[in-house]
TrEMBL record:
InterPro entries: Flag_bb_rod_N, Flagellar_basal_body_rod_CS, Flagellar_FlgE/F/G, Flg_bb/hook_C_dom, FlgE/F/G-like, LlgE_F_G-like_D1. Keywords: Bacterial flagellum, Cell projection, Cilium, Flagellum. Residues 5-35 form the Flagellar basal body rod protein N-terminal domain. The keyword Membrane does not apply. Belongs to the flagella basal body rod proteins family. Residues 122-180 form the Flagellar hook protein FlgE/F/G-like D1 domain. This is Flagellar biosynthesis protein FlgG. It is found in: Bacterial flagellum basal body. GO terms for biological process: bacterial-type flagellum-dependent swarming motility. It holds the Pfam family Flg_bb_rod.
Amino acid sequence: MFRGFYTASSGMIAQQRRTEMLSNNISNANTPGFKADQSTVRSFPDMLMSAVQKKGNASLENGFNPSSIQTIGGLNTGVYLQETLPNFMQGSIVETSNNTDLALLNGDLPTNAETGEQASVFFTVQAEDGGQAYTRNGNFTLDGEGFLTTPNGNYVLDDENARIQLQNDDFKVTKNGDIIVENQRVARIGIAYSETPYELAKKNNGLFFTPNNTNLPNAYTVPNISFSTEQGYTEGSNVDSAQTMTDMMTAYRAFEANQKVLQAYDRSMEKAVNEIGRV
């Protein structure tokens, strides 16, 4: 009976974590460049239960008699939230008319034949430790020294991994990422390419990192791909609010169902202790 407690409680924990993930998606439905998380729920490995009894003289030196094994059956030990992966589908493009805002548009990017996941491109920014981080949030601004930064203060890097410093916001960005000031090319927005974006680690503030902190390749040098930048626009979140709310209700109902099972087990144990124990 106690196994039922563990099975129901594991279901509650999995649905609680799924609800938290979906709540985070909903809260970032209007965050530029946000990529919605997706969860994978799977069961713990099944166990095959058998009863071993000693009957007569053992046929083996260690006392184990194969003929005395009685199969009881399989036992599932519950479920757990295996992992969460971002959905890198491109969000809607929103016009802001702000010169420092940039949207990154996927063009012709390859798709993995086995997983069905499409490759992706990212703006390259400087992480707090001085390394590289990657984002799709092009809601940039100029700081007090004229450096192009993310909303959280990360420096935007050019295609040579240097910070981009400008005199003011009177500049143009071409579709191929060139920054033009007074008809002169002064820098090029750093764009990184990831063939397997689902392997990137997602952290706070919409930043992505490689698992081993190595730099992604420069997207401008990767052959047979296409992408473009659009000035005065940002990429919106790819959260489907209606579907996410439906998924949240489903997760909540599943949590409630496991809760009812747990309460039923609790009442059964109460009777076993308080009533059957008197007999």
